[in-house]
Automatic annotation (TrEMBL):
EC number(s) given by UniProt: 1.2.1.3
CDD domains for this protein: ALDH_F2BC
Subcellular location: Mitochondrion matrix
Organism: Vigna unguiculata
Protein name: aldehyde dehydrogenase (NAD(+))
Reactions performed catalytically: an aldehyde + NAD(+) + H2O = a carboxylate + NADH + 2 H(+)
Molecular-function GO terms, alphabetical: aldehyde dehydrogenase (NAD+) activity
Record-annotated active site: 265
Length: 497
């Protein structure tokens, strides 16, 4: 059962950085404006944060431009860059608990997950890309003639990066890690719901020796600061994570301005397929994790749970029992599995989807309402008898609402799982290697997790098919996003030699 929501626990951290980080200094917005960032547990103000607009984005881009064109960063030896990244990772690790507390305060996710999963993953990822810094090199290319041909892999320039609120620091790391390792400079815009933790982490990069202007962080809203970054003529590359609708907007802004290349990590409606041979207890637990992790606020959430008809009834009973046992409460309390949703917009949207589910005839097994009367807590909710054409099975809910659908055979479930505009991820639960092989090849998605879910190793590429995105982040693949290839051709004077 859900724990009672009591008086919010006071976080063991102070908010130190609320200004924009431009050219190595914390500064106010040019307009002097600020906006409040709210505690999702209560809806109360945590801090007022400088609100960047286009003139601030201009200042930040000018600093990044200068740091790229004239600064030491892209010209430093790769080994020097590597050492700075490694020092930054060490500092973040040292401040793990404060950063985790800020993350939980601003976002609402369980502190234990911030402290034991998200910050360690950030550290691991920065070390991973530090490792790449001195291993990036081009090729010697054989040509049809007396030429010496080689390729240089050069940093692309100023990277504009726009990130969401669901994993503020992990998204920060996925963006800055590869960009810095390759020698680029950055203007990063955080999500307006969660500006705090990235400012803290960026400050530690400066402390680690990152030259001023290499990493600039602008807090602010999408249509103002975000759009200014996406359409900036001096930004050489754009990386965006957020909703599919906003992805279309930024791609258009990039095309209309200077045709900067864009990578996009967008929405999803990922199937989690439980086959007839599956161990049901394990499948229930993993399907529960696949959907409810991070308050259901994952782009890759397993939000269409397809269960074989032979085990469907048993699965639904057990999935309901598991959701009823989910511990919801103040994310600073030990043992909490689920905190509040991020804000009132998302909270209202999720409750609206729960109503659509009921109205369209799905069976509400458990949950279905808010929890308590303060903040943005929602009961873990499970629907059975969900049909493919219901809105809850087609659209991204981004909340703790599990939809369980029934299937008969593999061909059918492949067709249904692929019948979506999204293609981010899928889960496959089976003991049969042939079934696993068929599904992994037939599903049109960027990641298939077989008998696991949400395994986010730094080395494993992540990204979407179809309208779930363009390009891949993490792993070696992400380096490509931040490098230009220059072919250098010169004639050989004496080909006989
Ligand atoms: P969500 O609906 O989950 O908040 P969004 O895609 O709107 O997802 O937000 C992801 C990021 O994109 C945030 O940093 C947000 O400020 C930014 N953003 C929103 N609208 C725009 C826009 N028109 N141009 C650029 N960035 C935007």
């Amino acid at each position: 059962t859900a724990a009672a929501i009591e008086e919010p626990i006071k976080p063991a951290v102070q908010v130190e950085y609320t200004q924009l980080l431009i050219d190595g200094k914390f500064v106010d917005a040019a307009s002097g404006k600020t906006f409040p960032t709210l505690d999702p547990r209560t809806g109360e103000v945590i801090a007022h944060v400088a609100e960047g607009h286009s003139e601030d984005v201009d200042r930040a881009v000018a600093a990044a431009r200068k740091a790229f064109d004239h600064g030491p960063w892209p010209k430093m030896t790769a080994y020097e860059r590597q050492k700075i990244l490694l020092r930054a990772a060490d500092l973040i690790e040292k401040h793990n608990d404060e950063i985790a507390a800020l993350e939980t305060w601003d976002n609402g996710k369980p502190y234990e997950q911030s402290a034991k999963i998200e910050i360690p993953m950030l550290v691991r990822l920065i070390r991973y890309y530090a490792g790449w810094a001195d291993k990036i090199h081009g090729l010697t290319v054989p040509a049809d003639g007396p030429y010496h041909v080689q390729t240089l892999h050069e940093p692309i320039g100023v990277a504009g990066q726009i990130i969401p609120w669901n994993f503020p620091l992990l998204m920060f790391a996925w963006k800055v890690g590869p960009a810095l390792a390759c020698g680029n400079t950055i203007v990063l815009k955080t999500a307006e719901q969660t500006p705090l933790s990235a400012l803290y982490a960026a400050k530690l990069f400066l402390e680690a020796g990152l030259p001023p202007g290499v990493l600039n962080v602008v807090s602010g809203f999408g249509p103002t600061a975000g759009a200014a970054l996406a359409s900036h003529m001096e930004v050489d590359k754009l990386a965006f994570t957020g909703s599919t609708d906003t992805g279309k907007v930024v791609l258009e802004l990039a095309a209309k301005s200077n045709l900067k290349p864009v990578t996009l990590e967008l929405g999803g409606k990922s199937p989690f397929i439980v086959c007839e041979d599956a161990d049901i207890d394990q499948a229930v637990e993993l399907a529960h994790f696949a959907l409810f992790f991070n308050q259901g606020q994952c782009c890759c959430a397993g939000s269409r749970t397809y269960v074989h008809e032979s085990v469907y009834e048993e699965f639904v009973e057990k999935a309901k029992a598991r959701a009823l046992k989910r511990v919801v409460g103040d994310p600073f309390k030990g043992g909490i599995e689920q905190g509040p949703q991020i804000d009132s917009d998302q909270f209202e949207k999720i409750l609206r989807y729960i109503r659509y589910g009921v109205e369209s005839g799905a069976t509400l097994e458990t949950g279905g309402d808010r929890l308590g009367n303060k903040g943005f807590y929602i009961q873990p909710t499970v629907f059975s008898n969900v049909k493919d054409d219901m809105r809850i099975a087609k659209e991204e809910i981004f909340g703790p609402v599990q939809s369980i659908l029934k299937f008969k055979d593999l061909g059918e479930v492949v067709q249904r799982a692929n019948n979506t505009r999204y293609g981010l991820a899928a889960g496959v639960f089976t003991k049969n290697i042939d079934t696993a092989n068929i599904l992994t090849r037939a599903l049109r998605v960027g990641t298939v997790w077989v008998n696991c879910f949400d395994t986010f190793d730094a080395a494993i590429p992540f990204g979407g098919y179809k309208m779930s995105g363009q390009g891949r982040e993490k792993g070696e693949y992400s380096l490509k996003n931040y490098l230009q290839v220059k072919a250098v051709v010169n004639p050989l004077k004496n080909p006989a030699w």
